[in-house]
Amino acid sequence: MTDEPPVWARRTGTDRLDWATGKPDPGPSETEEGPPPGQPGAGRTAANRSLLLVAAVGFLAALTGGVAGGTVVAIVKDDSSAPLSATSPGENRTTAATRVDITSAISDAAATGRASVVRIESERRTGGQQITDVGSGVVIDAAGHIVTNAHVVLGTSSLRVFLADGTERQAFLIGHDAPFTDIAVLQIGLDGPPPLPVGDSSALQPGETVIAVGNPLSDFAGSVTVGVISGVNRVQVFDGVRNDDLIQTDAALNNGNSGGALLNLAGQFVGMPTAVLRESSSGLPVEGIGFAIPSNRLVAIAGEIIARGGALPRPSLGIDHADLTPEAAVRAGLPPGTGGAVVTAVNEGGPAGMAGIQPGYVVTRVGDYEVSFDEPLLNALMPHDPEQTVTVYLARNGQTIETRVRLGRRS
Questions:
Q1: d(CA 75, CA 154)
Q2: What is the value of pTM for the model shown?
Q3: By Cβ atoms counted within 10 A, which residue in 161, 224, 245, 322 is the most buried?
Q4: Which one is catalytic: 133, 182, 250, 320?
């Protein structure tokens, strides 16, 4: 037992990218305003010049390639030969050149990403059936280390990695950081794809163009989608852990994109898609809200896993638990507004069991860290070290219990 996440926080879909949130909506959604409507013409032309105007507009539209959002200008002389023009031809050329530059940057970044993003196929047994899942991974160094989401590779009976050219390579799981972070590291050895350059995720700005590269729905290897940074430092609870630094994007993400790459226009790896919201807490459909782990946190944890040759040392109480919702906390007899995590099972001989903690107890505090609706138990455990002795506060039948626990190491 490894301090499992709460039962209400669940992933759905083949690679468990999708999320149906069990918590209240985070607040009113932000809407983006479209561009202002075009300005009307400065005046009417004479009837005998109408055909000339139509021909001129058609010619210029064809010349500019019909670029969406671009400005088409018709210059028509009146009787005084005074030109009527919204913008100059030089400004049109500048706009077109800018759009070509952006398109070229997206294409170049996508080519860089596709060369370094791999397809991960896994098999797991669920309900007596053998299920094949597909996810993605990113090559991050010349030694062939691949970083991916932990939920892509954990609980699997076999793993296969396919490079962009279709070549299959044997992969080994070096280590992971679940359930504390959704990060795992594989290795395929030398002579693999080029590592993907890493960018500074802290420099991302809302509205910035980003490109997602991954392997959605098993059939669309190396798919590229484009969107913007919708927000940074988003706070969401996934797998029983509160994340404070998530990147929000509207780039299209589907099952199979998990573990792939989110790139900036320079072709740098700035985030890893990890979850998509598909419906609100009230069951309403949600579109265009995806989340990625920022590269700065991702690379730091992956680097430590590689340096250690295995998982990071993380603490454990040796229990299964469920973080309480406000409604469940009231049913558990806790004062209104009080959160906690109910112990659902105890590992015999583990830290909690040795301290006398039993199923049904509610953990309300670990050392100096309170367990609340916004601070799940795993977040309260995270600052501590394995083997560290801490005071754990519990609630049972309306009473508060304090006990000293020597934390174990997560398995």
A1: 65
A2: 0.76
A3: 161
A4: 182
What percentage of the chain reaches a pLDDT higher than 90? 58
User: Tens digits of per-residue pLDDT, 172-190?
Assistant: 999 999 999 999 999 998 8
Percent of the chain scoring above 70 in pLDDT: 76
- In sequence order, the 6+-apart residues with CB closer than 8 A to the CB of 98 are none
The pLDDT value given to residue 302: 98
What pLDDT shows up at residue 192? 85
- Which band of pLDDT confidence, cut at 50, 70 and 90, is reported for residue 131? confident
- The verdict on 207 and 98 lying in the same domain is no
The number of domains in the chain is 3
Co-location of 52 and 163 in the same domain: no
Q: Which of 223, 258, 316, 372 is catalytic?
A: 258
Query: Which of the residues 151, 176, 321, 384 is marked catalytic?
Result: 151
Whether the predicted pLDDT of 44 surpasses 60: no
Whether residues 216 and 286 share a domain: the answer is yes
Domain that holds residue 88: 47-107
384 noted as active-site residue: no
